[in-house]
UniProtKB/TrEMBL annotation:
Gene3D superfamilies: 3.40.50.2300. SUPFAM superfamilies: Periplasmic binding protein-like I. It comes from Microbulbifer halophilus. Residues 9-149 form the Transcriptional regulator LacI/GalR-like sensor domain. Keywords: DNA-binding, Transcription, Transcription regulation. This is Substrate-binding domain-containing protein. The keyword tRNA-binding does not apply. InterPro entries: LacI/GalR-like_sensor (IPR046335), Peripla_BP_I (IPR028082).
Length: 166
């Protein structure tokens, strides 16, 4: 079964909306060239990572819409010779059990999975004949800061910004 296009997935739309909102709140303009879309697949994440890193003004951080995508991003960056987080930070979303065990341990947004399941079961009767967005609930999330994020060496010392990747 083929994945639905990303724009049909409410959580993907909400994560993109949250990304844009966070940049806006931080006074950072949204650069559309830094947004790559896919269907949460590992190959999509690898392709997007490589495309982002080929840009002349490459990013210093990559936020992935899932931990699995972030792990694929980490693998692609490692294969290109980048050191995480010295050269670039990587972040995921979900806090799956493997997130703290990959290398480096993944910074991610932790979702209350058990509570999400309970809410879904309670909302199920209300969904009959309605769009999913009509029964939207936002549950508390937590940022789990681990070793995949931090200031890049180039941000700490402008003299290091021009060094080659090896």
């Amino acid at each position: 079964m083929e994945d639905a296009p990303w724009w049909k997935n409410p959580s993907t739309r909400d994560r993109l909306k949250g990304y844009r909102y966070a940049l806006h709140r931080g006074g950072i303009p949204v650069d559309e060239t830094l947004i790559e879309v896919g269907n949460h697949g590992l190959r999509d994440a690898e392709r997007a990572t490589r495309k982002l890193m080929e840009q002349p003004d490459r990013p210093t951080a990559i936020f992935n819409f899932s931990d699995e995508m972030a792990m694929s991003c980490l693998a692609a960056l490692h294969s290109m010779g980048y050191r995480i987080p010295d050269d670039i930070s990587v972040m995921g979303f979900d806090d799956i059990p493997y997130a703290e065990y990959c290398h480096p341990a993944l910074t991610t947004v932790s979702q209350p999975m058990a509570e999400i399941g309970i809410e879904c079961m309670e909302l199920l009767p209300q969904l009959k004949g309605k769009e999913m967005d009509a029964c939207n609930r936002i549950l508390p999330h937590r940022l789990m800061v681990r070793n995949s994020t931090g200031p890049t060496l180039s941000a700490m010392s402008p003299a290091l910004a021009g060094r080659s990747q090896s």
